[in-house]
Amino acid sequence: MKVEPAEQFARAARPHGYGGSAEALVQEYAPLVRKIAWQVFSKVARSSELDDLIQVGLIALIEASRQYEERGFAFSTYATTRIRGAMIDQLRREADVAAQRWARPNGCRRRARRSNSSSCARRPQSKWPKRST
Predict the structure, then answer these.
(1) Per-residue 3-state assignment (H helix, E strand, C coil) for 25-82
(2) Which band of pLDDT confidence, cut at 50, 70 and 90, is reported for residue 57?
(3) How far apart are CA 98 and CA 91, in angstroms?
(4) Least confident of 39-43, 87-91, 118-122
(5) Which residues make Cβ contacts (< 8 Å) with residue 103, sequence separation at least 6?
(6) Do 122 and 111 meet the contact criterion of CB atoms below 8 Å apart?
(7) For the chain, what are the domain ranges?
């Protein structure tokens, strides 16, 4: 049995990351980020700006380039999933902040939803008065 040196395995390993500079990466894939941002922006309420989504997408593109491992898929396929996911996560974070900002204290929102009213006044338990005997 022949023992092979460890350097041979180190050279054979596939490199991690996209390679190249971040500027070249952004220049090459900026149209993809803009396309995904327009797709996401068109499907949500206008609570967020398009420029914000593009910025989040560019950051996700750079992060995706650092974590990319070649496993038979193109980088653009991997990056598309990561970019869209980052944009959706940002929209969720913004929605949570907006919901928390307008939240009513002590379960008032739940009671108001049950009673179909905007006030937090409690309704009586029964709509029929008790009989006095």
Answers:
(1) HHHHHHHHHHHHHHHHHHHCCCCCCHHHHHHHHHHHHHHHHHHCECCCCCHHHHHHHH
(2) very high
(3) 11
(4) 118-122
(5) 109
(6) yes
(7) 16-115
User: In 3-state terms, what secondary structure has residue 117?
Assistant: coil
Q: What angle do CA 98, 54, 30 make, to 5 degrees?
A: 165
Q: What tokens were used for 105?
A: 């204290």
Instruction: Tell the CATH topology of 16-115.
Output: Rna Polymerase Sigma Factor; Chain: A (1.10.1740)
Q: What is the mean pLDDT of residues 10-34?
A: 71
**Distance, CA of 30 to CA of 55 (rounded, Å):** 10
Q: Supply the pLDDT for residue 36.
A: 95
% of the chain at pLDDT higher than 90: 32
Nearest to 84 by CA among 49, 37, 128: 37
